[in-house]
Specification:
Blueprint: H1 2-21, H2 25-68, E1 74-77, E2 83-86, H3 88-93, H4 102-106, H5 113-127, E3 129-136, E4 139-149, E5 152-159, H6 165-172, E6 178-181, E7 187-190, H7 192-198, E8 219-224, E9 227-239, E10 242-249, E11 271-274, E12 280-283, H8 285-291, E13 305-307, H9 312-320, E14 329-333, E15 341-351, E16 354-363, H10 365-410, H11 419-442, E17 451-453, H12 455-470, E18 474-479, E19 487-489, H13 491-507, E20 513-524, E21 528-530, E22 533-535, E23 538-546, H14 554-557, H15 577-587, E24 591-597, E25 601-609, H16 616-623, E26 638-642, H17 646-658, E27 662-666, H18 669-676, E28 685-689, H19 697-704, E29 713-717, E30 734-738, H20 743-754
Parallel strand pairs: 18-20, 26-27, 26-28, 28-29, 29-30
Antiparallel strand pairs: 1-2, 1-5, 3-4, 4-5, 6-7, 6-10, 8-9, 9-10, 11-12, 11-16, 13-14, 14-15, 15-16, 17-19, 20-23, 21-22, 23-25, 24-25
Helix pairs in contact: 1-2, 10-11, 10-17, 11-15, 12-13, 13-15, 18-19
């Protein structure tokens, strides 16, 4: 109010000065009127403020006059809780003086005075009044607070009226037992509930404990007329070295009553007692819940679980004889709802003279899950390391099979009864070669036959097969970019990529839906960071395969390209489909990304580098199909054939000899170098395997070319074409012939090199 009056006075003065300084009569009259109005308002405000202060002073004086004769302690404080007035009872009991802090004064009488006064202050600030029953040195009292005006708060500490003992006991049943302790453990106050519980007035807290000293937060046994009773002890700081001890009962109506003196049933660990034959003598509640049964006594342990390596009966027999007790056994529970593994530890004991065993059960499902994941990762790593070697051996075998089959077919015409059988052998060898190619795709080492591809034509040619794969309930929609660039890749492998993605999309929509395959031309002007891949700037042909299926959860999204990882049920997928797709796309030089929202569908996006027109001249020889020569075309010259696999070497030697070439055979690179050390031997062409024991193909060829630098070379391998260039620079005048190859492919490759 004073601040408002001062502001109004300042405004009146400003308006008056403005009126004196202005020369315009109208403005001067207006400013004088405003100055008069502001001055009048300021005077009225000051008068109102003075009247209010006088009224508050009269009210304060009336309160003080009333409190002087009141036997209860009464204090008046400001909002900051500093004492303005204390009646004689307050000066006598709490030794209050003007200017003292109210919480510090009450702390000598009221338990937890600071917290209590703070609570009452907050309540009175909202409602204008507040009261709370508190524990004091003289017993239970009521501390009341009322707001007299903005500057004065009235506090009153009233003693509770005496009540009959029965009524006091009934009322206190709702409250926990509370004891107020001094510094040395002396009991300063006990509420009615504590007095009824302990049956007496206790002088020191240790006198009420069966297990002294008192430990805050612990469980203590208190001595009562009915015997020791356990309570959880909670201590609250009451200020000035005092604390309130609250006894919280441990009884919980939700807990079952103990069924026996040994506590076997209530232990949180699943326990079983067994006889030497494995019959369950006793099972606690935790064990029954784990075994999913209401009662297990009298049944054999083998009815509930099965061994992972040996039978439960054999394991129990060995344990009963004292063997293997130092190690735990992992068993699988026989439960229809879910798969649970348990770790069981046995120990022998004697009960009432009879031998028994105690079994401790631990749920080991999570542990076995982690173990399975670790084994899976080891399996993945092992297959990744062995895929190339296995494929190499398979390709050698398939080369020998298909090659000798070709030799037999040369001696039979189509009218021969055996000719159809030879055709079947050849076709199945080719199918086996395709399977080996998938295995190599997993390790990204398959032999590619790249060519220039227009993805629009490739997908159009594949549409008939895809429509048959998706079925009637799924609609396949293709949308192409009219200016899609060409790419360089293996048509057969890229077709496999699209087929795998479409099959996965179909399986994600068991109720049917739409699968969209879109192609788009995208030009990146700067690098694109996506997941853990960096897509370089340039032009790309992009293929997107979208479905409206179940989608993939976020935590599984980063695992979909891992080998053997599948979200399908057992028997519906191997987990190799997307890992094969990933291997083919990466070996082609592209990128694959996946986006998915659970319940809405998934989208696989493939980036393939566009084939640059500037590289056309360089790549053309690799893309151009050689003109088909006459089937019985003969050649001339001497070929050094180096192959460690005898069946492959035998087939290749016969095939070349049939075409008129002279053949010198060698089983290793060292043997080939020894043959070439004779200057009398003239060799027109070297045909060698890449991977051999001892010196590999590129190594011995480099050494041989020191003396014969112009000799052309044909490298054979079941690995990828770039395998033999990983150990050093490429070899000039050398071509690659992937295994398995046919008789015609071998002889035509040799003809081209010698041409």
């Amino acid at each position: 109010m004073l601040r408002s009056s001062a502001l109004l006075s300042a405004l009146a003065l400003a308006c008056g000065l403005t009126a004196m300084l202005t020369a315009e009569p109208g403005l001067r009259i207006g400013m004088l009127a405003a100055a008069a109005a502001f001055a009048t308002t300021a005077i009225l405000a000051l008068a109102s403020f003075g009247l209010g202060r006088r009224r508050d002073a009269r009210s304060f004086a009336a309160v003080c006059a009333f409190a002087e004769g009141d036997p209860a302690p009464i204090l008046v404080s400001d909002p900051a809780l500093h004492v303005l007035y204390a009646n004689p009872a307050a000066r006598r009991e709490v030794e209050a003086r003007s200017g003292d802090a109210l919480p510090e004064l009450l702390a000598g009488q009221v338990a937890g005075a600071e917290a209590v006064s703070r609570r009452l202050w907050l309540q009175a600030h909202e409602r204008g009044h507040a009261r709370e029953e508190v524990a004091t040195r003289g017993g239970r009292r009521v501390l009341a607070l009322r707001v007299l005006d903005a500057e004065r708060w009235v506090w009153r500490l009233d003693r509770l009226p005496d009540r009959p003992e029965a009524e006091a006991g009934a009322a206190s049943e709702r409250d926990p037992p509370v004891l107020t302790l001094g510094r040395s453990g002396a009991v300063l106050y006990m509420n009615a509930r504590a007095r009824v519980l302990l049956g007496r007035r206790v002088k020191r807290i240790d006198d009420a404990l069966e297990d002294p000293p008192l430990r805050p937060g612990a469980i203590h046994r208190f001595l009562t007329p009915e015997g020791p009773v356990s309570f959880a002890v909670r201590c609250v700081d009451a200020g000035i070295g005092r604390k309130e001890v609250v006894l919280e009962p441990l009884e919980d109506p939700t807990l079952p009553e103990a069924s026996g003196p040994d506590g076997f049933e209530e232990l949180p660990v699943p326990l079983l007692r067994l006889d030497p034959e494995g019959r369950i003598l006793r099972a606690n509640a935790s064990a029954c819940r784990l075994l999913d049964t209401e009662r297990a006594e009298g049944r054999n342990l083998s009815e509930f679980m099965e061994g992972l390596g040996r039978s439960v009966a054999l394991w129990i027999g060995e344990a009963a004889a004292g063997r293997g007790l130092h190690r735990s056994e992992f068993l699988r529970l026989i439960r229809p709802d879910r798969e649970i593994f348990v770790q069981v530890t046995l120990n022998r004991l004697r009960c009432s003279g009879a031998p028994e065993m105690v079994a401790v059960l631990n749920d080991a499902t999570e542990l076995k899950t982690l173990e399975a994941q670790f084994v899976q990762s080891q399996k993945m790593q092992a297959i990744g390391q062995l895929a190339g070697g296995v494929a190499h051996d398979f390709n050698n075998l398939l080369t020998a099979i298909s090659g000798h089959c070709d030799l037999l077919m040369l001696r039979h015409d189509q009218g021969d009864p055996d000719y159809s059988d030879l055709v079947q052998i050849s076709q199945n060898a080719n199918r086996a070669a395709a399977l080996v190619g998938q295995l190599l795709a997993f390790s990204r080492k398959q032999t590619l036959r790249p060519e220039l591809l227009d993805l629009r034509e490739t997908l159009s040619d594949l549409t008939h097969l895809l429509n048959r794969l998706v079925g009637e309930r799924v609609e396949l929609v293709l949308k192409h970019d009219p200016v899609l660039p060409e790419i360089r890749g293996d048509r057969r492998q890229l077709e496999q990529v699209i087929v795998n993605l479409v099959v996965n999309a179909r399986d994600a929509m068991p109720e049917g839906g739409e699968i969209r395959i879109d192609t788009e031309r995208i030009t990146l002007m700067e690098p694109m960071q996506r997941d853990r891949a960096m897509v370089e700037p340039g032009e790309y042909a992009v293929v997107r395969v979208r479905d409206q299926g179940r989608g993939i959860e976020p935590e599984k999204l980063q695992k979909v390209f891992e080998p053997f990882y599948t979200t399908k049920r057992t028997g519906e997928g191997t987990g190799l489909g997307l890992s094969t797709v990933y291997g083919i796309v990466k070996q082609t030089g592209g990128f694959i990304f996946v986006d998915s929202v659970a319940g809405e569908g998934s989208c696989f996006t493939l980036f393939f580098p566009a084939f640059a027109a500037a590289d056309q001249a360089v790549a053309a020889p690799a893309e151009a199909e050689p003109s088909a020569p006459e089937p019985q075309r003969s050649g001339s010259g001497t070929v050094l054939l180096v192959e460690d696999e005898a069946p492959v070497r035998a087939f290749a030697a016969r095939a070349l000899a049939m075409r008129g070439y002279g053949v010198i055979e060698a089983g290793t690179g060292e043997e080939a170098l020894q043959r070439l050390s004779d200057p009398k031997i003239s060799v027109d062409l070297i045909v060698t395997d890449v991977v051999m024991p001892g010196l590999d193909g590129p190594s011995w060829v480099r050494e041989a070319r020191r003396d014969r630098p112009e000799t052309p070379v044909v490298f054979m391998s079941g690995y990828a074409e770039d395998v033999f260039s990983e150990g050093g620079p490429g070899l000039p005048n050398a071509v690659f012939l992937p295994k398995p190859f046919s008789l015609t492919e071998l002889t035509e490759t040799v003809n081209r090199q010698l041409a």
